[in-house]
Amino acid sequence: MMTATGDIASDTIVARATPRGASALSIVRLSGANAIPLVDSVFNGKALSEQASHTAHVGFLSGDAGLVDQVVCTLFRAPNTVTGEDVVEISCHGGDVASDAVLRLMIARGALHAAPGEFTQRAFLNGKIDLAQAESIAELIHAQSERASRVSLSHLKGRYSEELSSIRQDLLDLLTLIELELDFSEEDVAFADRKRLQDLLDGAHSKLVSMTGSFRFGTALAQGIRVVIVGKPNAGKSTLLNALLGYDRAIVSEIPGTTRDEIESHVEYDGVRYTFVDTAGRRETDNVVEAEGVRRSHAAEASADLLLELIDASSFDAGATHGTNSSAKESANRLRVGNKSDQLSSQDIDVVLPFYDVLLSAKQLEKDTEAVESLMRRIAKLTIGDTDIAEEHQVVTSMRQQSHILAALKAVERARMAMATSLSGDMLSSDVRLVVEEIGAITGEVTNEDILDQIFSRFCIGK
Ligand SMILES: Nc1nc2c(ncn2[C@@H]2O[C@H](COP(=O)(O)OP(=O)(O)OP(=O)(O)O)[C@@H](O)[C@H]2O)c(=O)[nH]1
Ligand SMILES: [Mg+2]
Question: Whose CA is nearest to atom 21 of ligand 1?
């Protein structure tokens, strides 16, 4: 585990811990070796430097220009603090005036204004949290739904990191033995239990596979899902949007070309935020306003995670209706939705059914919450896959982590191969080492030196 450098520990940083704007209270927070004496020098009340950790003290702050505010200072002494350094939280009066004055006072006394994420960075450098936890703090702040914040919280609690660390530690132990074998290669000894290594690699493999599999869900949680409704004028796009939202957001009319501007609204389903975008109908038009709408709807398609291609199934014209030329990015899913099924006889339905992924009546959907629910399920399945993830703490939400997990997975696969074909211990050890490094990178553990340390600390080989 890394420790803080002298430089960082001696710099005391300060920042507003609550957002700007009107509120009952604001909090200004300091962290660093000088945090307590610094605040003490402007605090009229008890001598803060003599007070115990985790205590709160009321008093007045005053600077050269006089009284600044009446405040409560809460002291947290290192190492049991959020950053691992001495921390003072100053609760002052709400609004920007008081907190700005407190901030200015602290900076005048020598505190440095914190850079973005600097408190968290110090927590990491002081070994209070690992990288995955640091990332989860950022996620938590930006969480778009309750479920997203639950996942971030469970990462923060550290079980995710613990599981990764324990896989890594087990592999590291075996790696040590494999490397020891290499040192004795002429004598042909085997210290490392191959069966145990095989089991560990298998275990790591299945855990990593389930983690990468959760990334789609993790990203959906973190960023939401964008669903764009496209189709010809009058297909019923706006009607479908309204049905999905559960209220009349878009104007619906029998006049083709009703929707000109894109209309965007959000729905939370199963903890994920879905943004639905209603667009102008696709057609050639001389009307400049409508033409601009059509141009924009093509642009909207490019940003979609899923395209709902709506087609008026009641004016079904076999052969003609089904050519689509969309500019949507290749990866976007599509769902071909036949609309206005209420206009079809059961015979018609049999005929048209094979042409669509879903056949429905947007108009009836407005009164049928169960049908909306089933459409949402379908949409969720297409965009996220399995959302029924029990092990919330294993959900991967960061691109950085995902790339290390993928790299670790590749190395695990190579290591298993090396075992199966009993290639040289050299190959095996370099692959296992890679797995250890990649897993370590997720939580920010240092690896190369680790391995050396372990070899030298556990075994006195004497050479
Ligand atoms: N019978 C029937 N009519 C529908 C259904 N869905 C929509 N409509 C009607 O079709 C017409 C067009 O609906 P809109 O939702 O405005 O269609 P749109 O695709 O948004 O059209 P533009 O905005 O012009 O591109 C309206 O008169 C709706 O009432 C449906 O399921 N059944
Ligand atoms: Mg419309």
Answer: 234
Give the number of the ligand closest to the Cα of residue 310: 1
Between CA 443 and CA 160 the distance in angstroms is 9
297 touches ligand 1 (CB under 6 Å)? no
User: What average pLDDT does this structure show over 320-337?
Assistant: 56
How far CA 131 is from CA of 2, 135, 154, in Å, comes to 12, 6, 14
**Does the Cβ of 287 fall within 6 Å of ligand 1?**
no
Beta strands at 43-44 and 55-63: parallel, antiparallel or unpaired: antiparallel
Are residues 271 and 384 in contact, defined by beta-carbon separation less than 8 angstroms? no
Q: What's the chain's average pLDDT?
A: 81
Tell the CATH superfamily of the 6-127 domain.
Answer: Probable tRNA modification gtpase trme; domain 1 (3.30.1360.120)
Q: Is 342 in the pocket of ligand 1 (CB under 6 A)?
A: yes
Whether the pLDDT of residue 318 is over 70: the answer is no
Distance CA 112, CA 81 (A): 19
142-214+394-458: what fold? Four Helix Bundle (Hemerythrin (Met), subunit A) (1.20.120)
* Residue 293 CB–ligand 1 contact under 6 Å: no
Please say whether the structural domain 224-384 has been given the CATH code 3.40.50.300: yes
Q: Please give the distance, rounded to the nearest whole angstrom, from the Cα atom of residue 251 to the centre of ligand 1.
A: 10
Whole-number Å distance, alpha carbon 309 to ligand 2 midpoint, is: 13
| Ligand nearest to the backbone CA of 280 | 1
Spell out the residues 6+ positions from residue 33 whose beta carbon is closer than 8 angstroms to its own: 9, 10, 12, 78, 85, 86
**What residue type is 147 in one-letter code?**
R
How far apart (Å, rounded) are the C-alpha atoms in residues 114 and 63? 21
pTM for this model (two decimals): 0.62
What pLDDT is attached to residue 5? 38
Identify which of 358, 363, 364, 366 to mutate to test ligand 1's pocket (most ligand atoms within 8 A of the CB).
Answer: 363
